[in-house]
Amino acid sequence: MNKDIYKKPIFKSNPITVLVLGVCSALAVTVQLKGACVMALSVTIVTGFSSLLISMIRESIPNRIRIIVQLVIVAMLVILVDQLLKAFAYDVSKQLSVYIGLIITNCIIMGRIEAFALNNKPLPSFVDGLANGFGYGMVIIIVAFIRELLGSGMLFGYQIIPQSWYIINGGFYENNGLIILPPMALIILGCIVWVQRSIQKDLQEK
Amino acid sequence: MNKNSNLYTIIYSTILVVVVAGILAFVSSSLKSKQQDNVALEKMQSILSAANLGSEADVVADKASYIKDLYAKHITNSYILNNHGTVIPGEAFQVDLKSQYQIIKKIMEADDTQLSKLKSQLLLPVYVCTIDNQVLNIFPCYGAGLWGPIWGYISVKDDYQTVYGAVFDHKSETPGLGAEIAKPKFYDQFDGKKLFKDDSFISISIVKGGGQINNPYGVDAISGGTITSRSLEKTIASWLKEYLPYFDIKREAIRAENSPCEGGTCTLDTLIVVEPVK
Questions:
Q1: DSSP conformational letter for B162
Q2: Cα(B231)–Cα(B278) distance, rounded to whole angstroms?
Q3: Do the strands A158-159 and A154-155 form a parallel or antiparallel pair, or are they unpaired?
Q4: What residues pair up with B142 in beta bridges, in sequence order?
Q5: Cβ of A86 and B31 within 8 Å?
Q6: CA nearest neighbour of B42 among B56, B57, B31
Q7: pLDDT digits (tens, 9 = 90+) for A151-173
């Protein structure tokens, strides 16, 4: 198998920072690390298995209704993930609420199916889906790390910044309320894109 | 076979949809009992944490049995009230708060002619919680937040005016903003607040700067979650208002107990004691 299939989506053509797909959920679920991690895992599973399933039936799909067929498969997987989370990880499922359902509309999934799974064998498609989900997950976890640490002083819900630093307790520090608002997520995302573009020169426009 | 013919397309989509529906129906029905258990368990946990109990739920190994044991131990009674504050038969735990909220919403918009009819439809659950010798009454509330429903439980001490604890939750408020109503940092502010000012009901206001120590009637709102804060304030007030007859009955009983002229049988001795000494 071509190594590019799983190497490219993680950095060189990362779905969020290079293809700029799935940005909406990246802004919405990155306030806390825990939610971001479950979201990353859910998206990785859905992209992987939807690419696998579509690739398996790709020869039989009537061309005129292929988008509908893709949507049905993606929606099925998302509902499965949602149901499983509700049964086995109820707390997290409550925290992510609507965003699990909104994985259906995540452009990465449809994008990978259209661009890759429809023309490739099941195994490479599966790896491609997983790698794209992972590339997405990596970026939202970085954003969530920055936002939870600076916005609430916590990581995974545990206090990291010592309580004695806070102004209320006589210290000098205060959480940055702006960080927990969606616009800051976009700015952090912009900074990540900036870093990537300065490393990866071929992305820069002349 | 021609894959672009209408017949193929129709047959293909039919089979696909039936297969997918079958898978989803199977998964949904096999996970249903577990999901319902989760919902009931969460409700028990909410009721308990309104009385500041069950704080170790997330550290104990077996959360389900921890919550169930605690619930069985402390929630000694529960009943449904009507709008006159009297008990009517029924299982309080099974009352659907959402449908009661629909009635309360109608009550707020109704004119005088419909009001009494609507009010008589209300089923108001109350949970009685006993911690050592202290008896708490726990009242639910349910309303609309910014994106979806918000709800909570408020426990009131046996003076029927001081809040002992409160807990709130939501379906889909913005994480980090409105969703903060479900954090201890927010709902712990309610402890010790008063629902009555000079004997008239004023509920608890949720505003910026409301949480100053000398203000027993308000708590701090959430920055960035103004709409959720306002909705919660409205929700609490509109539900507790329906419980007012019950509060009045109980407060009247306390007053009668404390007054020297109990039940109208004042003796001469007590009257002399009450008379200020000149």
A1: B
A2: 54
A3: antiparallel
A4: B151
A5: yes
A6: B57
A7: 888 888 788 888 888 877 777 88
Q: What is the mean pLDDT of residues B102-114?
A: 85
pLDDT band at B274 (very low <50, low <70, confident <90, very high): very low
The tokens for B142 are 């349910």
Q: Residue B9 is nearest to which of A64, A84, A86, comparing CB atoms?
A: A64
Q: How far is A24 from chain B (nearest CA, A)?
A: 14
Which pLDDT tens digit goes with each residue over B13-72? 999 999 999 999 999 999 999 988 888 888 898 899 888 888 777 777 777 888 888 888
Encoded amino acid at B190, one letter: F
Tell me, what DSSP letter sits at residue B50?
H
**Model confidence at B270, in pLDDT bands (50, 70, 90)?**
very low
For residues B137 and B155, the answer to whether their CB atoms sit within 8 Å is: yes
Other CB atoms within 10 Å distance of the CB of residue B92: 21
CA distance B4 to chain A (A): 6
> Both tokens of residue A79?
């509902």
Among the listed residues A183, A113, A136, A144, the one whose alpha carbon sits nearest the alpha carbon of residue A20: A136
- Tokens read off for A194: 């900036």
Please name every residue paired with B140 in a beta bridge, in sequence order, or none if there are none.
B153
Can you tell me the ipTM of this complex?
0.77
In this complex, the residue of B20, B171, B224 whose CB is nearest that of residue A180 is: B224
B137-150 in b/e form (b: 16+ CB < 10 A) is bbbbbbbebbbebb
Global pTM? 0.73
For chain A, helix (H) and strand (E) counts, in that order, are 9, 2
Asked whether the beta carbons of A47 and A112 are under 8 A apart, the reply is: yes
